[in-house]
Amino acid sequence: MSSTETRRALFEGLVCPACVRPLDLWDQDRVSPPRLSCARCGRRWPICQRTPVFASTWSEAIPPGPAALLHDPDVEAWPDLQRSLERADPRLFAHVFASAQGAPPALPPFLAGARAAVLGCGWGRVASQLAEVCKEVYASDDSHVRARFANVRAYAEGRGNLLAATAGLDSLPFPAGVFHLVVVEERAVAAILRDRRYLLARLGRARALLAPDGVLAVCRQKQAGMAARWAARRLEAVLAQAGFAPAALPPPSARPEPRTWAVAARSRHAVSGHAASLAPLLAGL
């Protein structure tokens, strides 16, 4: 299957956030602008700049300074964008690009053929790493700028098996029960913890995405001291309240099959520091 066919299949795999029915893809050959629609409830969602939009508000002002370079990425000028950003803001460049360099070859082999979802994907760094070895990767971010950047990145890096959508945790368009790995990035962790009234409901949505042998990986910043330990314990308690249990994965070489590296049905989680590559993150689950 070609990269274009794979990406189209990812679009056709999206579901209605309201009634969880498969969506109809109306691409540029059928209607302009392209969109996704649900035949059951009649809802429609636009596809803006090759990125499906499921958020009610998604326009963002272009910030001043080097960050403006990330608001209008061009696949054809991808190396120029990297060089310009590195010269203008080395720290921002490292956050967006540098930590992904050389990481995919170190990913555990048992992820080959797996399906993954990344919530709060940001600039697509972790999603791109996973797409190197996984069969399919869906990503979401409530920022259209970041979701669009993740899709441009997928094109530039040859990740036809990666699709990012503009969607919050309350409007995820991903099918339930099919993902072997769901990664909750720092942005999504912050959104989950922001309002305690919806905390368990949002964790429940993440749990519903998992296959019977799936694992939830929660990313957080590496910190030290008593406050960091308290925050980790609080997060563990919240996950336990939502029905998860700690995951203890064996070494990557011990579990070559993609469906055998988690044990309990929709009930595993792991909390790890956000490392430079996914290898330490997954190896520590």
Characterise the protein shown here.
The protein has 285 residues and is an alpha/beta fold. 32% of the residues lie in helices and 19% in strands. The strands form two sheets. Strands 7-6-5-8-9-11-10 form a seven-stranded parallel beta sheet, sandwiched between helices. A four-stranded antiparallel beta sheet has the order 1-2-3-4. Mean pLDDT is 77; it is low at 100-107 and 249-285. A hairpin with an 8-residue loop joins strand 1 (24-26) and strand 2. It contains nine helices and eleven strands. The longest helix has 16 residues, at 226-241. The protein folds into two domains: 3-49; 93-283, Rossmann fold, CATH 3.40.50.150. The chain is globular, with a radius of gyration of 18 Å.
